[in-house]
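wait is this the right file?? whatever heres the structure
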């Protein structure tokens, strides 16, 4: 919300010397977030000048310029010669002149310069050049604004260009602050300055005609029990002149507030919306057929909105209609057939209260956010529409030459009831942790507009103001007390955790794994959990066949509407983004959840139980069953060079061996032993893919990405990846989190070369050696895979380096050999292995 300071001063006493930063500091103290300060970005001298005369001079480039003599006042040098290319002004016109030394928005400094054979001693400015809009059709003629100032007058002050606006972030629960009325009230809360409510008008001024123009709300099937419109005010102003200029002060304020001026009638409705917070819509009364009916749309009904788009409507959409059909999306955007134009002579003013949920759903359904929907979906003061409608009518009478019709109009409204809240006296100090006095609590609540009465001495009965729909319980009231009395009073004392608490074993294990990868040189990344069905099929299954995936009903990105089954697509996107920015040597990892629905099971169909009522065990079980499995995975990706090229050292690229090392790092950190056997994955290179198992249970895979898949991700060179089900991995680690004791006795080393069939996995042979050698075998590591002369066709020689150690003695060579041969015997039994001669 942008708040022009001159406008703010109308409703609250702001010190004359207060700067924009001072006002922002005050608003921050009551809970608003500072965004920015906006101004017109110009400095003087910028003055009122009068065109004495001019000569039109055709140029060789086909353009005709005017060599003007402009009187800017004796104090500013009298008559100056200025070159101007515009042709919409005449001798005698008073215009805005930017003199040398001035700076226009851009910044665009003005200086005397030679052009078209003359020295132009300044510039005659257009509205766009002054920052007063996008219109660049010609010079700004002050007579068109209804102004006739003295020559030499400071134009910056005349046009309100010396004003600035502060911008604050308004959270969704504080929609009342999307208005000058709300922000001025909050500034008053922060500083104690006197507040003048622009919505406080005597009832006799607001007397509303109830005849002559029919208005009806027909909502026979309210959505979720909520009626679409609870209040609708229609006032008529006749004989307006839509060609009249918008007053400069109003143009300046709207521009600073971020609203583009569009003509006097629309500008007035926007001005009142910003002032009071109630969106206003104006209709060309002569284009309406009959009265107005507010109703739900019929399925498939059409409406062309003000942006020129034809929209297909839903039964949940709330419409403004006349006898011809829909003429507007209630609370979102009007229709094109009844909009106010330069031909409008009679205006119907609409001020209403619409259901926030209905408006929010309509705006999102049609992807049509607007300033009106932004306010309605946050809640508008139900007592303000009569004031807002009359305020618009008064401004149209004053500035558009209209006449208020006091005989014809319409109004529908319901009684405004605000539910009281019980607030125990000890609750606020107990929740906030500050020893507030009773006077401080009641005073803070009364300052924000609450009615507070004491009940039985132990609690207060609090009725929130009509403009604060967010105050619904004692917790929100307590937050208001803390906000108004000052957050700086809340002590910054850290709570003391109960003894025996800390990370769970699963949390500790996950951190241990992540820290181990980070220590090994991998960089942790975080990617979005959304992807395409094709990516899920490619990376979420071994064969690439179609697998079930969860599709979002309202995705952030329509091209990626599915929840991921694998972390690899996200890592590929991260790698692509880095490579495109010149970072080509990457070692990445990510830990996160994936969504793996089961075949044939439908998820997300359970009805959400009513709020404020705790669901029973059966309902909770049904809700849990409606959520697909979401295991936590961990994945790594490498591409580029492990060692960069340097003097005396060639570059060494990453390959699958590096990812296997990462897998071993994960295994050690998790406290498990991972076996690797050759396998297949749809996205990985045949022959360079391994299946990872723990205790014969598959927990993941490792391999080199297919060149075509890497090219599709715009990644040059080799890409190797691994992905493991971290939950399954840690579940098989059990409670083994203690480091093993180290033996003080020396190790005995022996090698063994076994000849087996070429199709026998080395991991299976190693497992046989380990099983047979028994507890004395400390480690078995494959060091060679040989196929060639000396080894029969169809067979291979696998060499393992064996380490033996006993915890209580020094092993003899005979004991180590005996254990080795026991392992060889098991390998021979299982695979026909023989010691290579």
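ok assuming it is, sequence goes like this
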């Amino acid at each position: 919300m942008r708040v022009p300071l001159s406008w703010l001063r109308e409703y609250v006493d702001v010190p004359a010397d207060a700067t924009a930063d001072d006002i922002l500091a005050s608003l921050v103290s009551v809970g608003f977030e500072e965004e920015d300060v906006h101004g017109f970005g110009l400095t003087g001298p910028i003055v009122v000048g009068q065109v004495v005369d001019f000569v039109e001079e055709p140029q060789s480039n086909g353009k005709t310029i005017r060599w003007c003599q402009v009187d800017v006042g004796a104090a500013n040098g009298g008559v100056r010669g200025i070159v101007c290319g515009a042709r919409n002004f005449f001798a005698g016109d008073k215009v805005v002149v930017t003199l040398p030394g001035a700076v226009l928005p851009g910044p665009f400094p003005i200086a005397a310069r030679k052009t078209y054979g003359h020295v132009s001693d300044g510039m005659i400015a257009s509205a766009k050049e002054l920052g007063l809009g996008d219109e660049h059709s010609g010079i700004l003629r002050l007579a068109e604004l209804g102004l006739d100032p003295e020559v030499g007058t400071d134009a910056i002050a005349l046009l309100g260009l010396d004003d600035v606006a502060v911008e604050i972030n308004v959270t969704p629960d504080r929609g009342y602050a999307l208005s000058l009325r709300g922000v001025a009230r909050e500034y008053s809360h922060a500083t104690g300055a006197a507040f003048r409510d622009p919505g406080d008008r005597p009832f006799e001024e607001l007397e509303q005609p109830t005849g002559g123009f029919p208005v009806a709300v027909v909502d026979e099937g309210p959505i979720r029990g909520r009626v679409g419109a609870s209040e609708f005010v229609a006032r008529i102003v006749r004989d307006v002149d839509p060609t009249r200029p918008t007053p400069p002060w109003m143009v300046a304020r709207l521009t600073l507030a971020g609203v583009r001026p569009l003509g006097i009638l629309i500008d007035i409705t926007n001005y009142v919306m910003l002032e009071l917070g109630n969106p206003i819509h104006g209709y060309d009364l002569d284009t309406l057929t009959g009265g107005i009916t507010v109703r739900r749309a019929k399925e498939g009904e059409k409406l062309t909105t003000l942006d020129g788009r034809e929209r297909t409507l839903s039964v949940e959409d709330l419409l403004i209609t006349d006898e011809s059909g829909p003429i507007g999306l209630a609370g979102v955007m009007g229709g094109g057939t009844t909009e106010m134009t330069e031909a409008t002579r009679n205006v119907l003013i609409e001020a209403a209260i619409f259901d926030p949920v209905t408006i929010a759903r309509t705006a999102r359904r049609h992807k049509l956010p607007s300033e009106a929907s932004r306010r309605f979906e946050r809640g508008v003061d139900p007592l303000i529409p009569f004031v807002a409608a009359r305020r618009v009518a008064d401004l149209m009478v004053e500035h558009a030459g209209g006449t208020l019709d006091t005989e014809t109009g319409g109004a529908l409204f319901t009684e405004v009831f605000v539910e009281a809240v019980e607030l125990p006296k000890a609750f606020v100090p107990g929740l906030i942790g500050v020893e507030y006095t009773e006077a401080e609590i009641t005073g803070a609540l009364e300052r924000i507009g609450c009615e507070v009465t004491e009940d039985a001495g132990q609690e207060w009965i609090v009725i929130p103001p009509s403009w604060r729909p967010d105050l619904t319980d004692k917790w929100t009231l307590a937050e208001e007390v803390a906000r108004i009395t000052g957050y700086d009073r809340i002590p910054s004392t850290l709570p003391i955790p109960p003894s025996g608490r800390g990370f769970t074993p699963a949390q500790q294990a996950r951190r241990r794994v992540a820290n181990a990868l980070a220590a090994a040189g991998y960089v942790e990344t975080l990617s979005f959990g959304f992807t395409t069905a094709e990516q899920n099929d490619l990376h979420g299954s071994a064969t690439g066949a179609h697998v079930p995936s969860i599709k979002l009903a309202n995705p952030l990105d329509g091209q990626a509407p599915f929840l991921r089954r694998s972390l690899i697509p996200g890592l590929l996107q991260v790698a692509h983004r880095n490579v495109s920015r010149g970072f080509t040597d990457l070692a990445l990892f990510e830990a996160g959840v994936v969504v793996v629905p089961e075949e044939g099971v439908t998820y997300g169909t359970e009805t959400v139980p009513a709020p404020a009522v705790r669901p029973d065990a059966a309902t909770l079980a049904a809700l849990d069953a409606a959520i697909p499995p979401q295991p936590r995975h961990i994945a790594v990706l490498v591409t580029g060079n492990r060692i960069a090229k340097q003097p005396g050292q060639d570059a060494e690229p990453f390959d699958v061996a590096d990812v296997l090392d990462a897998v071993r790092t994960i295994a050690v950190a998790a406290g498990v032993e991972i076996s690797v056997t050759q396998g297949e994955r749809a996205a990985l290179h045949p022959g360079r893919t391994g299946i990872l198992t723990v205790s014969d249970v598959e927990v993941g895979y490792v391999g080199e990405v297919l060149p075509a898949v890497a090219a599709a991700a715009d990644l040059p060179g080799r890409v190797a990846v691994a992905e493991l089900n971290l939950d399954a991995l840690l579940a098989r680690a059990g409670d083994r989190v203690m480091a093993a004791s180290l033996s003080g006795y020396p190790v005995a080393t022996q090698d063994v070369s076994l000849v087996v069939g070429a199709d026998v996995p080395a991991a299976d042979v190693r497992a046989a050696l380990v099983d047979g050698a028994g507890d004395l075998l400390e480690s078995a590591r494959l060091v060679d895979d040989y196929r060639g002369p000396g080894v029969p066709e169809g067979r291979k020689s696998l060499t393992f380096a064996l380490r033996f150690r006993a915890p209580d003695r020094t092993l003899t060579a005979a004991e180590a050999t005996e254990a080795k041969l026991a392992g060889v015997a098991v390998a021979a039994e299982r695979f026909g292995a023989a010691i290579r001669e």
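The mean pLDDT is 89. so i think its the right one actually
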